[in-house]
Amino acid sequence: MASCTHCGAPLAANTNKCKYCGTRNDVDLHAKFPYKAEQQASNRICPQCNIPLNTISAEQDQNLFIERCKSCFGLFFDRGELEYVLQQSVSNIHEINLEHIDNINKDRYQKPADFNYRKCPECSVLMNRVNFGQRSAVVVDQCLIHGIWLDNGELAHLMEWKKAGGQLLHQQTEALKQQSAKPKTRTPLPDSSPASSGGAWETGEWDISWDVIAAVAWLLAKIFLGR
After folding, report:
1. Residue 28 domain-assigned?
2. Residue 72 lies in a domain
3. Range of the domain at 46
4. What is the mean pLDDT of residues 34-63?
């Protein structure tokens, strides 16, 4: 559990404002994802506070730029950036601990007091509410074109979820879904026609037999019917 950087009191799950001293804390990037602030301000607008976002860059990757609100500490990731940050921050996970995942969600999940669709910081179109990954209990705001918005505390939640094997669980679940969605192919039955057995259809004997039968029928008709 994160603590207030000012008074040291424990912070409630997925919150950044200390209820004792009122200080707002950066619980996502502080001591978890080293970064530096860029001088230029972003033209993107915080969907929560309606103020311009600041641009920060990751220390381990100077080409990775993320928008961050200086007031609510929310984060906006361009498409693919959140997955990249999780990969760089938490790696080499080979085991799924379902009990740990459930405990993380119970400890961190906090139902929002109010719910409103938010505007994309880039295009101002209302974003979709999407559950990020299997059993993560993190519902993100997603613009299908520009990226994902995370409230303060949700990045730390996802890091712990991945460390417990959450992303590995998600990948396995998606693989099973794709496998079950594949159309089933029917195995053709063996061909029981004369051609498949190498019989009269292939040798031409079938046509000869019918010629003989036709000749006999004509002869019988000639004898008995006088035709």
Report:
1. no
2. yes
3. 35-177
4. 81
